[in-house]
Each structure stands twice: as C-alpha cells, then as structure tokens.
Design a protein that fits this description.
The complex is a heterodimer of chains A (113) and B (111). Chain A is mainly β. Chain A has no helices and eleven strands. In chain A, the strands form two sheets. In chain A, strands 2, 4, 5, 6, 9, 10 and 11 form a seven-stranded mixed β-sheet that branches. In chain A, a hairpin with a 2-residue loop joins strand 5 and strand 6. Chain B has 111 residues and is an all-beta fold. Helices cover 0% and strands 53% of the residues of chain B. Chain B is built from no helices and eleven strands. In chain B, the strands form two sheets. In chain B, strands 2, 4, 5, 9, 10 and 11 form a six-stranded mixed β-sheet that branches. Chain B is globular. The termini of chain B are far apart. The relative contact order of chain B is 0.34. The chains are: A mainly beta (113), B mainly beta (111).
Chain lengths: 113, 111
C-alpha cells in the first residue's frame, strides 16, 4: 500500500553541490513526473516520463536531469544546485489516458544556500 | 495569459457558509478536469474529478462549462476541516499526460 514514495523529505545543499531526489511507485503507472512548487506560482512541471526509457521536458527543466530505467523509479538529479532551486518538489504518477488522476509523493523541501 | 487561472483568494468564511471557487482554462483541447486539495506543506490530494454533466460528492459540487472553458467548485455547509488550498487541474492528454495546475485558492473556515 506504499503508492508513491519520495525521499528525502528535507535537504539542505550548498550552491554548486549535486544531489538526486528519489521517486518510486508500486502501482505500475506508465506516467511519472516531477513538479516544483513555489509560493504564489502553483505547481510547475519539470520533467515527465510516459514509460521506461522515455522522458521529456516540462515547463521548467533547466538545471535538472531525469532518467527512467524502470517503470517503478524516476529520480530527479540536480546537477549544480543554485539558490533559485530552493523549492518544494513533488513526484507524481498516474495511469496513461484522459481522466486518470495523479498520485503524489509526500514532497521534498529543498534549500540551497 | 496563464493556462489555468483561479480566484486569487484567500477566502475567509464562517463555519456553515457556502463558498464557490472559479477556474478558467485556456487550452480548448483539454480533456479532463479535477479539483485537488492541498493542506499546508502537504502533497495535493484529489478532491474530485469534474464531468461535463456536473457532479456532486457530499457537500461538494463541481461544474464544467466547456464552451466558456470554466470550472467551478461549490462547498456547502463549510467545516473547519475544509480549510486548505484548492487547486484546479486540467489535463490536455494528447500523447502522454499534460496536467496543468492553477495557482490555487486558499480557504480558511473560521469558528
């Protein structure tokens, strides 16, 4: 009954450091995605994937990389952290198709100093 | 113009009040529509899907007007526990998904 598991919950980085946010789902969803949420901005799509081996950019992809080697996992990599990447990050997944709802992980609060 | 716009809020209402939220979307190819609820510092959770004929779930009623590209959410008999941010979400699923989130409207229900 895990759903979407996202780690870590909190992370503090120094400018220039790199790190990976982990996301895993056990619902056999084809679609997985990463969002960032900033005050007053709503959720913005960073990258998404419609299946293993397939990824694409969302609205705000710069500074982030993703890969989808398995159906279950969709890690988000920050290559060289910048203060502008301070945000709350959410991983989400769903079945493919119109009408399918998104399931979210519990979020990661990231601060870049 | 943003793809999905919502009432800016916040809405402060007394317990028992009826409150309505409005949402408009710009992509006429949008195919599915949702209201999500987000509590402070938590992940968004699905409140209800929105269907063309309108739909109701207890105290919550959602309406969709495709011609006007307008979605609404009505909450009757507000409870303290309804205090949250309500997100309007639109999906223009062509190939793959394309969920677009509105900025949200914050509701505070006061005792």
């Amino acid at each position: 009954n895990a759903g979407v598991t996202q780690t870590p919950k909190f992370q503090v980085l120094k400018t220039g450091q790199s790190m990976t946010l982990q996301c895993a789902q056990d619902m056999n969803h084809e679609y997985m995605s990463w969002y960032r949420q900033d005050p007053g901005m709503g959720l913005r799509l960073i990258h998404y994937s419609v299946g293993a081996g397939i990824t694409d950019q969302g609205e705000v992809p710069n500074g982030y990389n993703v890969s989808r080697s398995t159906t279950e996992d969709f890690p988000l990599r920050l290559l060289s952290a910048a203060p502008s990447q301070t945000s709350v990050y959410f991983c989400a997944s769903s079945y493919q198709g119109s009408g399918e709802k998104l399931f979210f992980g519990s979020g990661t609060q990231l601060s870049v100093l | 113009r943003k793809e999905v716009e919502q009432d800016p809020g916040p809405f402060n209402v007394p317990e028992g009040a009826t409150v309505a939220f409005n949402c408009t979307y710009s992509n006429s190819a949008s195919q599915s529509f949702f209201w999500y609820r987000q509590d402070c510092r938590k992940e968004p959770k699905l409140l209800m899907s929105v269907y063309s004929s309108g739909n109701e779930d207890g105290r919550f009623t959602a309406q969709l007007n495709r011609a006007s590209q307008y979605i609404s959410l009505l909450i009757r008999d507000s409870k303290l526990s309804d205090s949250a941010t309500y997100l309007c979400v639109v999906n223009a699923a062509n190939y793959g998904q394309n969920f677009v989130f509105g900025p949200g409207t914050r509701l505070s229900v006061l005792p």
